[in-house]
Specification:
This protein has helices at 3-15, 20-29, 51-54, 56-72, 90-99, 105-108, 118-127, 215-231, 277-286, 297-304, 306-315, 319-333, 340-343, and strands at 18-19, 79-84, 109-114, 139-142, 153-158, 167-172, 175-183, 189-193, 210-213, 233-242, 252-255, 258-260, 270-272, 275-276, 290-296, 344-350. By secondary structure, the protein is α/β, with parallel strands linked by helices. It contains 13 helices and 16 strands. The strands form three sheets. Strands 2, 3, 4, 5, 10, 14, 15 and 16 form an eight-stranded mixed β-sheet that branches.
């Protein structure tokens, strides 16, 4: 039994079963035993690998997206270049290196990293220890988006929204009941349903259907979009998930690059759910922002020129390095159902005056 597992069992024994959303929040963000509070989970020696760690091309193209979007917004100065959940800082380091091609971008920018993990903050400090000299505003860390200075912003969020807690509602006997985590007869963690129906959910669905409500994710998106509408700016979210709301149980745990039982060893695995981009888009639109996408990650990266960037890198690389670049390109943009290029989606939200957005085709059908 993990220390967090013991604490959750004690909590349930004293107060009763807890919603899946609270269980996720404890697993990932418990101040002492939470998964992200205690480790660097990224990389071959960790539990999963993210796109910025696969290839520099990903961060470089995101940096070029940020620079082009800044230009399209009228080159506001000063502005906040924000990253939510910056991982090891790899994406931001690559983005800054690429974005220096836009005159005035770095001089107008201040980097603001929203990170709660003390371990990952140290990784980010190391990655950004020598930022480009032109970066006039420096690099700053915050625990919350609310702490970022009130000014125009360009925000990046790669594999951020999947780690925010979701509510799970289950269609049971003609009503929607919230899925809870409780204790079984042997004292082990197990799933159950709330005894009372939730009248706020009115979707028609077959018996046993699971509806995930991204309450935490939509709250963050509403706040982000509200700031963008008020002060100017744009945000880019890239994550694995679906473009349209549907019925599915996507709660999952990843440990040592393999799926694990999310109720076993709390605090020792990455517990996430697939992102519902339709819910994020609705939240942004309700706040008055313009929405672009979602489109597949592969389509987004190709529109930004990843294939040309791969050719340029391969032209001055060794044979072995050239093969690695080609493999990374396929991994990031592959078009099979199980490939990152399809599983991952990109969504942008922006101030209403931004009528076009790099990487997206206006009014195209979502993926």
């Amino acid at each position: 039994m993990t220390p967090l597992g013991a604490e959750i069992r004690e909590l349930i024994a004293a107060q009763g079963p807890i919603p899946v959303s609270r269980y996720m929040a404890l697993c990932l963000g418990h101040p002492r035993y939470g998964y992200y509070m205690t480790r660097d989970p990224i990389g071959l020696s960790g539990d999963f690998v993210t796109a910025p760690e696969i290839s520099q091309m990903f961060g470089e193209l995101v940096g070029l997206w940020a620079a082009q979007t800044w230009i399209d917004l009228g080159s506001p100065s000063p502005f906040a270049l924000v990253e939510l959940g910056p991982g090891r800082g790899t994406l931001m380091a690559d983005a800054l290196r690429a974005a220096k091609v836009a005159p005035g971008f770095l001089e107008a920018a201040a980097v603001h990293l929203v990170e709660t993990s003390p371990v990952l903050r140290e990784r980010q400090r190391a990655a950004l220890a020598s930022p480009p000299p032109a970066l006039a505003g420096g690099v700053h860390w915050h625990a919350r988006l609310d702490d970022v200075p009130d000014r125009p912003l360009i925000a990046l969020a790669n594999e951020f929204f999947d780690a925010l807690p979701v509510r799970q509602m289950v269609r049971d006997r003609g009503a929607w009941r919230e899925r809870l985590v409780g204790l079984d007869a042997g004292g082990a963690l197990g799933f159950g349903l709330a005894p009372d129906a939730d009248p706020s959910v009115s979707w028609e669905a077959p018996e046993g259907a699971v509806l995930e409500i991204a309450a935490a994710g939509t709250a963050v998106m509403r706040a982000l979009a509200g700031r963008i509408v008020a002060a100017g700016g744009a945000a880019l979210a890239i994550d694995y998930g679906h473009a349209r709301t549907g019925f599915a149980d996507t709660l999952q745990a990843i440990r040592r690059h393999a799926f694990a039982d999310p109720l076993v060893d709390p605090g020792e695995a990455d517990v996430t759910a697939h992102v519902d981009f339709a819910q994020l888009a609705t939240a942004a639109g309700a706040a008055g922002a313009r929405v672009f996408g979602p489109v597949t990650q592969g389509a987004f990266l190709r529109a930004l020129g990843i294939e040309a960037r791969a050719r340029a890198l391969a032209a001055r690389a060794s044979a072995t390095q050239s093969e690695e670049i080609g493999a990374a390109l396929v991994r990031l943009t592959g078009e099979r159902d199980a490939d990152m290029g399809v599983l991952f989606k990109a969504l942008a939200v922006a101030h209403p005056r931004l009528t076009a957005c790099a990487g997206f085709i206006r009014d195209e059908e979502p993926c």
